[in-house]
Structures are given as structure tokens and as C-alpha cells.
Amino acid sequence: MFYEKSAKIWDKIKESDNILINIHKHPDYDSISSALAISYVLDKIGKKHKIIGCQKVNEHFLFIKGAEEIETIDYTTFDFNDYDLFIIPDTGSYDRVTGNKNIPLPKSLEYVVIDHHRTNNFDRDLKILDERASATAEMLYCLFDDWGIDMTPDLATILLTGILGDTVFLRYSEDSKKTLSVVASLVEKGADKDFISENFYERYEFNTIKLLGVFLENMRQEEKFIWSAIPYETFEKYGKPDGVREMAADLFFRGIKGTDFGVAILEYAKGEMSLSFRSKKNADVSQVAKLFGGGGHKNAAGATVRGEFKESVNKILGELRK
């Protein structure tokens, strides 16, 4: 048995009639894959359910089996009365679920929280937090083993997508021995690594790469970190491509010699800045992200800052220079 609460969560799922599954704000590979893996299992046991999220899924993720069925909702108007259980994977705080700190979660539901972010602040009885897991998808591999779920090639591919996404193709993990063991098992069970790789790295839109170039052109180096900031007007000029901030951070912002971490700042809507932090092995950017109300992993974290672009960037840099 991998997790002490596995049986309790499985019992709760089996006794529930209509289940919601969440993808978080700014959904990434792990969030989407984790939700889809849970959905796959619920389908197999005949449970009525729906995957919801506060933001539309980027078209780049639609190669993941079932991603096109995820429903974008407004948490202020959605009718939760027909549901009795809400499963929240890969999400560390309620505002990452609803999309806004001023929109609370409904009180009428019971909750299951499955996450690996060290900054997770949910206080729920049915919660599993595994900070050593490389991804929530890795945790689900263990949970499904506890539950006796048959690991089909489709399910293995979904889980491997989440793991490879959150580790940037195995660049980073807290427990490499365990993560690589899980990956090997998923490949043995039929996970299509080549299919995942092709869809990760061989389908970029032209404007995505052009905007990535602007991120790199604007990059500046401080004493211990690097940064780059893109205003909304530039983002809009290139067609507002999804995922470019994370791409810049993953590929370049943790790799500059002589620095501990990097932050990519994108004004994705007027007056709303999204920050992606990436760090070298021994620097903990989850604590840096907390300065701005965010969180995440030791080596990869994020936050949202609201305000006028130039003023906000100066405030961010002021905090980071302290």
C-alpha cells in the first residue's frame, strides 16, 4: 500500500453518485493528465462525472486522450447541487481551483485532494500530499496500484504525459529512483513515449517561438537571478499564444551560469501578471513565489500579481532584490 488514505478515498469514490474533477488555473500537463487519468478510472467503474476548469484548455494539450471533453465553467454561476464529491488533483489552493481569491469553493460538496506541491494549504480529511512525488500523475500511478486498477496503454500514456510535463522530460524530480521506476513501469505497460515527445516538441506555432525570442531578448541578469517581462500589448501582437511563459522558464530561466533562479513575467490580461519561477537544484522558489501569494515546487513555482505593468514589475524586482 503506497498511501495510508488510499482505501478511504476509494470507498468515498465508490459511494458517490456524481463526481466533479478539477483542472487548475493555467492548466498544465500534470493538471490535465491527472484529471483525465481519474476520469478514465471513473469511466471504468461506471461513475457519473465531469471534468471542469476555470480556464479554457490550450489547444496544445488536446492530444491527451479526453482533453477535448473538459468543460470551462464560471464558479460563480455553475450549479453544484447535482454533485456530491469534488476531486481536486494537482492544486495547492482554492483560488487555483476557482481562478480568483474572492470566489470560494462550494460548501455543499465533500472533497478529495491529491497533490504534491509543498505549498498546498487545503485542510481536508481526504487529502494526500506527497512532496517527494515528481508529479500528481506519479501519485496517481501509486493510488491506482493501491486500488487494483488495470494499467492499460491509454491510461499509462496519460499518466506518463503528466510526469514528463512536470519534470520537463525528467530534468527534475525529488526522488529520481522512484520516478524513473514509475516511468519504466508505465512504458512497460504500453505508454507511448514517442507520441508524447512528438506532441510536446514538434507542434509549436510560429508565433509561439517568435514570442519566446522576445522573452529571451528582454532577459536581464541581476546578482542572483535573471528575469524577463512581457507587457500585454506584445503578448497580443503575437496572437496571445498559450504556454510560452512556461516554455521560456523551463528551457532557459534556470540554466544561466552564476544565478540561482529565474522568473518569466507575462501580462496575460491587462493588469494581470503571471510569474513563472524556475531554479537550480538547491534554490527553493516555492518560498519566493509565496512572497507574491503563489506557490509550487522547490524548483518550479508560480504566482499572479495584479496592477499596472511597469509598476508591478518594479515591485516584483524590488522584492526579489532584497
Written description of the protein model:
By secondary structure, the chain is an alpha/beta fold. It has two domains: 6-200, inorganic pyrophosphatase (n-terminal core), CATH 3.90.1640.10; 206-320, Roll (Diaminopimelate Epimerase, Chain A, domain 1). Helices cover 39% and strands 19% of the residues. It has helices at 6-15, 29-44, 94-98, 136-147, 153-166, 176-188, 193-201, 206-217, 232-237, 244-253, 285-290, 309-320, and strands at residues 18-23, 48-53, 71-72, 85-89, 110-115, 127-129, 220-221, 225-230, 261-269, 272-279, 295-296, 300-306. The strands form two sheets. The protein has a six-stranded parallel beta sheet with strand order 3-2-1-4-5-6. Strands 7-8-9-10-12-11 form a six-stranded mixed beta sheet, sandwiched between helices. Strand 7 and strand 8 form a beta hairpin. It is globular, with a radius of gyration of 19 Å. The mean pLDDT is 95.
Estimate percent helicity. 25-40%
The gyration radius over C-alpha positions equals 19 Å
Kindly identify the CATH topology of the largest domain: inorganic pyrophosphatase (n-terminal core)
Please give the domain count. 2
What would CATH call the class of the largest domain? Alpha Beta
Low-confidence spans: none
Name the helix and strand elements from N-terminus to C-terminus, one letter apiece: HEHEEEHEEHHHHHEEHHEEHEEH
What is the approximate shape? globular
User: What would you give as the CATH superfamily of the largest domain?
Assistant: inorganic pyrophosphatase (n-terminal core)
> How many helical stretches?
12
Mean pLDDT: 95
Q: What topology, given as strand order, has the largest sheet?
A: 3-2-1-4-5-6
Distance between the termini: 45 Å
Strand content: 15-25%
Helix/strand/pairing category: alpha/beta
| CATH architecture classification name of the largest domain | Alpha-Beta Complex
Q: How many strands, which pairing sense, and closed or not: the largest β-sheet? A: 6 strands, parallel
Count of extended strands: 12
